[in-house]
TrEMBL record:
Residues 118-147 are annotated as: Disordered. Residues 125-134 have a biased composition (Pro residues). This is Polyketide cyclase/dehydrase/lipid transport protein. It comes from the Bacteria.
């Protein structure tokens, strides 16, 4: 069993295809795992992405699987990483799990907020232009109205 073995599930009320597109974005990948080098192991389209993890002291895999559920999708995030060389002391492994879980949750909840806001944003009515009216009237543009 990997020494860092996490599963985080996040429900997002948005189109699964939109989520899969966002998950595949290299910018999100960098935000999720800034300390590791990731190489795409499997690009699964609307089902997400799996990466190989390498770093100065770790090796393993990580993935985000997009599962359509109801009016949205669940992002199943898996992290399976081992240290290169000796195993981590148990206190360090616990600390690393807590820290990695908290970081991933912050980033995934940020993705959730942005995606749900974008998919449910109301269409705003047209912004009215400057008032118009007959010359010399209060509504006329030359009557002191400054946009």
């Amino acid at each position: 069993m990997p020494q860092l073995d996490l599963i985080i599930e996040t429900y997002v009320r948005a189109e699964p295809a939109d989520l899969a597109f966002r998950v595949a974005d290299p910018v999100l990948r960098t935000r999720l795992w800034p300390q590791w080098r990731l190489e795409v192991a499997e690009e699964r389209g609307v089902e997400g992405v799996r990466w190989r993890v390498t770093g100065p002291r770790v090796t393993g895999t990580t993935e985000v699987w997009v599962e359509p559920v109801g009016e949205g999708a669940v992002l199943h995030t898996f992290v399976r990483v081992d240290p290169l060389g000796r195993r981590w002391p148990s206190w360090w492994a616990r600390w690393r799990r807590r820290r990695t879980r908290a970081h991933l949750r912050r980033v995934l909840w940020g993705l959730k907020d942005v995606t749900e806001t974008a998919s449910t944003a109301p269409v705003s009515p047209a912004v009215p232009g400057p008032p118009t009216g007959p010359p010399g009237s209060i509504a006329a543009p030359d009557a002191g109205y400054a946009p």
